[in-house]
Write a structure and sequence with these properties.
This protein is an alpha+beta fold. It has seven helices and 15 strands. The protein has two domains: 135 residues, Fructose-1,6-Bisphosphatase, Chain A, domain 1 (2-Layer Sandwich); 116 residues, 3-Layer(aba) Sandwich (D-Maltodextrin-Binding Protein, domain 2), CATH 3.40.190.80. It is globular and about 50 Å long.
């Protein structure tokens, strides 16, 4: 992309520097801790977030930052950075190279900048509002594939109802609806792969804003479609949505409705 804004340049710088932190930890025995919500924790999480926050705060001292590890810093600004220092922590902790750093800037709930970086594969996805989506400085677009060749992912939060719906989608959707459903454990990359055209959709059930904010903008700027689960217009920070290439989006909406009805979910 030519003429990157200062905000995008800082987001890319922060993601790349945090990537060096993760690379360092990959060369060691990674200690795996368990948080109160049973999710996994590694030292790299806090170190990566510290690096990202330092770079952003230095460039934009009046902006607020919402981080997975430290919560909200400097609340009150219309500009809020949403950062996940290691999305796909469990993959990272086990040495599986499907994890990423996610950095997004939101202004009054409008997505402005999104960066997703996987240091294991040196894949840098980024987008800026109304300027397109890119992978390692090459413009990317969603695929044109329909259901016959489709691969989609499902991602879920910690709620019991989210887990139930997730399991129904994982096992019922492949039965003649789509070709393949996967759970790769890193929604930032799931969304980035939709934008790249490597996958066709992601169904998101209750994850946090810092998990998906950057990826959503990248999908939108790559020509994708995002709605709530019922097909109505999506807006940030709604965390139940379908992001797709748009080819069979309406079919996915109907299938999610069917699965929710089966589970007596409103």
């Amino acid at each position: 992309m030519e003429h990157k804004s200062k905000e995008l340049k800082i987001a890319i710088k922060a993601a790349l520097q945090a990537g060096k932190v993760l690379e360092k930890h990959l060369k060691t025995d990674i200690f795996k801790g368990i948080k109160d919500d049973k999710s996994i924790s590694v030292v790299a999480d806090s170190e990566s977030e510290e690096v990202i926050k330092k770079i952003i705060s230095s460039a934009f001292p009046k902006h607020s930052i919402l981080g997975e590890e430290t919560g909200m810093t400097g609340s009150g600004s219309d500009y809020v950075w949403h950062i996940d220092p290691v999305d796909g922590t469990r993959n990272f902790a086990h040495g599986i190279p499907f994890f990423a750093i996610s950095v997004a800037l939101i202004y009054k709930n409008d997505l402005q900048v999104g960066v997703v970086y996987n240091p294991a594969t040196l894949s840098l996805f980024y987008a800026e509002r109304n300027k397109g989506a890119y992978l390692n400085d090459k413009r990317i677009f969603v695929s044109k594939d329909g259901i016959e060749r489709s691969m989609i992912t499902a991602s879920r939060g910690k709620g019991k109802s989210d887990e139930k719906l997730f399991r129904e989608l994982m096992y019922d959707l492949p039965m003649g609806v789509v070709a393949s459903v996967r759970d790769f454990g890193c929604v930032a990359l799931d969304l980035s792969f939709v934008a790249q055209g490597a996958m066709e959709a992601n169904i998101n059930l209750g994850l946090r804003s810092y998990d998906f904010a950057a990826g959503i903008l990248i999908v939108k700027e790559a020509g994708g479609k995002i709605t709530k689960l019922d097909g109505s217009p999506w807006s940030f920070p709604e965390n139940y949505f379908i992001a797709s290439n748009g080819v069979f989006h309406d079919l996915l909406v109907e299938e999610v409705k069917k699965q929710k009805a089966k589970l007596n979910m409103n």
